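A favour, since you know our structure tokens better than I do. Go ahead and set the record down below.
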Amino acid sequence: MSAVPDATESGGQPDRAAAARALYAISRGELVEGRAPAELLAYEGQPVESGLPLQLAVLDLWRAAGEEQGGWKVAWTSRGARDRGGKDFRPFGFILAGRIHASGERLDASAIPNGAVEAEICLTIGEHIGGAGVTPEQARAAVRAVAPSFEIISRRLPEGVSMPVRIGNGMNNWGLVVGEERSPDSLDLDALSVELRKDGELLGTGTAGPDVLDDPYVSLARVCAVLHRQGLALEPGQRIITGSLLPGEKIGQAKSFEARFGGLGSVVVDFG
């Protein structure tokens, strides 16, 4: 990937189309060694929210290549990251439909640069919902099912890029592995515990709850407001993940990971 000497549009704004092409190439596996391309460095000092239209431009390139969107991740929902971009600002990251897998499927770790897994609650949307004033109660009513899941992330960006570029990169999402769905009415998502195992060995345990993670339905309501500012909403069938209950674990040489979510069930991903 070649850097360009001037990566701004007339008026001094970053060239969004050029930056999107750079991020699209990276997301397809073209890793950058050394200094980041000028197209991405041009976003230094830009407002955090400028990363959202950049991300949507990358999604448009995936769609032009025949891919479809399968859902969203909601970021900055954990205790340490809340409101880092402004009060109640929860950036999204798109999830490609072709990278949503069922529990137990085998993935190729070599296709996931600097890959890691995160244990997350997955919500499936049952009806269109959007707008600036969505309440957590309305968000809950729009959810058709909940499931245990692994977000597969890929730390593929070069060093030194700004937060808008990180948002433009889809917040590192590579894909999603989803376990068996259950009715949202049968579970208290704030009371879930999770165990994470690698190759059968227990790595750690965690719990849901406001001290760790925003309530998933609060996260849905907040991301609806952010999507609304981009002319978007949550749509039926989309899978939404709302933050990791435990620190992410590098895939490395692992053969498999399992996350057990108590009454929600378990999810497994194989790399062997």
Remarks:
- The chain is about 20% helix and 25% strand.
- The chain has a mean pLDDT of 90.
- Helices lie at 16-27, 38-41, 51-64, 136-141, 163-168, 216-229.
- The CA atoms of residues 138 and 221 lie 8 Å apart.
